[in-house]
Amino acid sequence: MNPKISFRGVSCTFQLNGEVFQALDNFSLDVADGEFITVVGPSGCGKSTMMNVAAGLLEPTAGEVLVEGRAVHGPSPERGVIFQQYALFPWLTVRENVAFGLDIAKVPEPERRRIVDRCIDLVGLTRFADALPKMLSGGMKQRCAIARAYAVNPAILLMDEPFGALDALTRVTMQDQLLATWARDTRTVVFITHDVEEAVYLANRVIVMAARPGRLHQVIPVDLPYPRNEEMRLSARFMEIRNQVWNAVYHQTPAIAAQAPAA
Ligand SMILES: Nc1ncnc2c1ncn2[C@@H]1O[C@H](COP(=O)(O)OP(=O)(O)OP(=O)(O)O)[C@@H](O)[C@H]1O
């Protein structure tokens, strides 16, 4: 079967203080339709750069990203993007923020209301539907951003550390909600995280990147069945894969190993 997303030899360079800096070097990866992949790696290894190319927000210096065989040259509603910074419109309520993409797509009113209510409910913000973003906590803002991305029902979700700013409990709940949504309504997901356990818990495959230059380091399949649950986090197999990902991330080089947090 043809991949949903295909990174083909993607390289990105930036000019930094008059010098050429290689943020991503010859990155190639196929992502299958409906696959959930997570991306981990040391800071500065090009994770966001890779995602920005897939989102169509950045043109690569070499190579290309194909979606269903078509080259990406700009953003598209088929690719929903969620960043750690919530990027909500401060003057719109939660409901209006979530409805934003549907307004642009001219989805008629009864249908729009149904979708907005469902997405707000999915992220647990029903009581705050008429609140402005300034009245929400960080976690609630992020849930609103996620509801907004879900509302336009993109075939591909590109998520750049979406749960990074959430407290531990909200984060675990959001992981389960994301997997439940994905199981009901399968999309292709590319999810960047710094959290190795989160990477293993969510993914079909964990992509480990390396830095200087940013590149693909290892692809680690996660052979745990779905639906995943809290008990699995304590299973021997989960710990085994988690340790494999941990070693791939933090023992790439002695310099990175020296900075590694306690395992
Ligand atoms: N627009 C830019 N101009 C110059 N350098 C850039 C630009 N964007 C990214 N870089 C550099 O490219 C490298 C990769 O950045 P990127 O944000 O993709 O890494 P990352 O793996 O997502 O990092 P982190 O985990 O810290 O978020 C970094 O060294 C960064 O400083």
UniProtKB/TrEMBL annotation:
<feature type="domain" description="ABC transporter">
    <location>
        <begin position="5"/>
        <end position="236"/>
    </location>
</feature>
<dbReference type="InterPro" id="IPR027417">
    <property type="entry name" value="P-loop_NTPase"/>
</dbReference>
<comment type="similarity">
    <text>Belongs to the ABC transporter superfamily.</text>
</comment>
<dbReference type="InterPro" id="IPR003593">
    <property type="entry name" value="AAA+_ATPase"/>
</dbReference>
<keyword id="KW-0067">ATP-binding</keyword>
<dbReference type="GO" id="GO:0016887">
    <property type="term" value="F:ATP hydrolysis activity"/>
</dbReference>
<keyword id="KW-0813">Transport</keyword>
<keyword id="KW-1003">Cell membrane</keyword>
<keyword id="KW-0472">Membrane</keyword>
<dbReference type="GO" id="GO:0005524">
    <property type="term" value="F:ATP binding"/>
</dbReference>
<dbReference type="Pfam" id="PF00005">
    <property type="entry name" value="ABC_tran"/>
</dbReference>
<keyword id="KW-0547">Nucleotide-binding</keyword>
<dbReference type="InterPro" id="IPR003439">
    <property type="entry name" value="ABC_transporter-like_ATP-bd"/>
</dbReference>
<dbReference type="InterPro" id="IPR050166">
    <property type="entry name" value="ABC_transporter_ATP-bind"/>
</dbReference>
<protein>
    <submittedName>
        <fullName>ABC transporter ATP-binding protein</fullName>
    </submittedName>
</protein>
